[in-house]
Amino acid sequence: MGPTQFIPSTWVQYKDRIASASGQNPPNPWDARTAVFATGLLMMDNGADDQTRASERRAALRYFAGGNWSKPAYAFYGDGVMSLADKFQKEIDVLEGR
Predict the structure, then answer these.
(1) Longest Cα pair distance anywhere in the chain, in angstroms?
(2) Other C-beta atoms lying within 10 Å of the C-beta of residue 54
(3) How far apart are CA 2 and CA 14, in angstroms?
(4) Helix %, strand %, coil % for the chain, to 5?
(5) Nearest residue to 58 via CA among 66, 85, 36, 90
(6) Which parts of 3-52 fold into alpha helices (H)?
(7) C-alpha angle 11-42-88 in degrees, rounded to nearest 5
(8) Collapsing DSSP states into helix, strand and coil, what is residue 48?
(9) In CA terms, which of 32, 42, 48, 69 is 20 to 30 Å from 58?
(10) For residues 63 and 46, is the Cβ–Cβ distance under 8 A?
């Protein structure tokens, strides 16, 4: 559902935390601001808050494939996410004069 493609059952599991984090109650999966808060919480729970390249890639794979995240067939997704992250970081570095 919505711009970050939440499965309805996952949204229900997160709705109270989303409401608390976003200040929108009830939270709406079709609202981009709320959806981004929800994705942040999910990625954090998937391990991205460990702030390592491996944990962020794994979190992206879990977002995409759930319990099947470690299957080699899904590596393209994690690799693609990390490639985009690298691109964004390079652009941020330019903007910050690094």
Answers:
(1) 43
(2) 11
(3) 14
(4) 75, 0, 25
(5) 66
(6) 8-22, 32-45
(7) 125
(8) helix
(9) 32
(10) yes
* Mean per-residue pLDDT, 14-23: 92
Structure tokens at 26: 């009830």
- Report which of 63, 61, 47, 44 is spatially closest to residue 4, judged by C-alpha positions: 63
Q: Give 82's DSSP letter.
A: H
Q: Is the confidence at residue 72, as pLDDT, over 90?
A: yes
Contact 55, 48 (CB under 8 A): yes
Sign of the dihedral through C-alpha 20, 56, 63, 84: positive
Token output for 82? 């990390």
Q: Report residue 78 as tokens.
A: 């994690």
- CA 60/CA 39 separation, integer angstroms: 10
